[in-house]
Specification:
Layout (H helix, E strand, L loop, with lengths): L7 H9 L2 H92 L6 H24 L2 H16 L7 H16 L4 H15 L3 H8 L6 H5 L17 H23 L3 H18 L3 H15 L12 H13 L4
Organism: Novilysobacter luteus
Keywords: Membrane, Transmembrane, Transmembrane helix
Protein name: Uroporphyrin-3 C-methyltransferase
Length: about 325
């Protein structure tokens, strides 16, 4: 066995003593790496926490913005409502101002020393009476009431001492004369003629023929229910049921004509009378009597239903024109 020289023993010892240094260096590096990783992990956690806080802050800001927008819309609606209310109040205020101006103007007119209060009241009364008379005549056809109203208006105007209204009295006299010249209201005359004609339609010849049927020959009485001779150009009701139906139709059309005359419907009035003539042709077997009745119906249908009085309303129009001219603002 070869002995190991003494010089090699320190070298081995020196090489064996380097490992602790390497281990210490490795431990330092691992510690540094761990500390660096720990710091990175702490920064990462801090960044995540900051990001979460930022997200929460952004959500809070979004909610705040939404709340502000809602408040803004609510404020805009309130402003619109306030604007509409202000417009309504402004219109009402303007209306109150106009009414106040009208009232002040009315008081100023009545306080005018040149204006006679009694005369103004008389003119108002005369205008009212003339309006009532004209309406009663045109709407209700009441000629007597119109005459009384015009007579009262004439008495009222007689108490007006203003010379400017002298011509008005003359116009009223002319209109009253035209009313007095009327015998009756045209619609009343037409209705009276129609009622009289409707009452006269009784088919007397048919009744006479029925009553004298027992005096006819036996062969005519035997075949009377089978053969009936009548004009070929018209259809005359023979059976009692047909006669009753024709009379009912005639009376119905006469009633419709009366209703049309009451509302001054000239077309409806004449159409109803034309249909009544058709029913009359079925009721009357005698041709001359039938033609006479149809001619009477035509004359009744041609009668006017409204007044044709040119001077009607002239006094009222002149009175209003005079008052408007004299009461213009000075």
């Amino acid at each position: 066995m070869t002995p190991i020289p003494d010089e090699t023993i320190p070298a081995r010892r020196r090489s064996g003593s380097a490992w602790p240094l390497l281990l210490m260096l490795l431990a330092v590096l691992l510690a540094a790496a761990g500390w660096y990783g720990w710091q990175r992990w702490l920064r990462y956690q801090a960044a995540e926490a900051a990001e979460a806080d930022a997200a929460v802050l952004v959500d809070a800001l979004d909610q705040r913005v939404d709340a502000l927008r809602r408040d803004q819309r609510a404020q805009a609606q309130r402003l619109q409502q306030a604007d509409a209310t202000n417009r309504v109040l402004r219109d009402e205020l303007l209306g109150l101002g106009e009414r106040s101006a009208i009232i002040e103007d009315s008081f100023a007119r009545f306080a005018d020393p040149d204006r006679h209060g009694a005369q103004a009241l008389r003119l108002d009364e005369a205008e009212l009476l003339l309006s009532l008379g004209q309406q009663r005549l045109l709407i209700a056809g009441d000629l007597d009431a119109a005459r009384r109203a015009y007579a009262l208006a004439g008495g009222v105007l007689a108490g007006v001492d203003d010379p400017a209204y002298l011509s008005l009295r003359q116009t009223l006299q002319q209109e009253r004369a035209a009313l007095e010249a009327l015998e009756a209201e045209p619609r009343a005359i037409a209705l009276a003629r129609l009622d009289a004609f409707a009452q006269s339609v009784t088919a007397p010849q048919r009744q006479a023929r029925n009553t004298t049927s027992t005096e006819q020959p036996w062969w005519r009485r035997a075949f009377a229910g089978i053969v009936d001779a009548q004009p070929s150009d018209s259809v005359v009701a023979v059976q009692p049921a047909d006669v009753a139906a024709a009379r009912a139709g005639f009376q119905l059309e006469v009633s419709l004509a009366r209703a049309a005359a009451e509302r001054r419907d000239v077309d409806g009035y004449r159409a109803a009378l034309q249909r009544a003539g058709d029913w009359l042709a079925r009721l009357e077997p005698d041709r001359p009597a039938r033609d006479n009745g149809l001619a009477q119906l035509e004359r009744i249908a041609a009668m006017p239903l409204s007044l044709s009085l040119p001077t009607l309303g002239s006094t009222l129009g002149q009175l209003r024109q005079l008052r408007a001219t004299r009461e213009e603002p000075r």
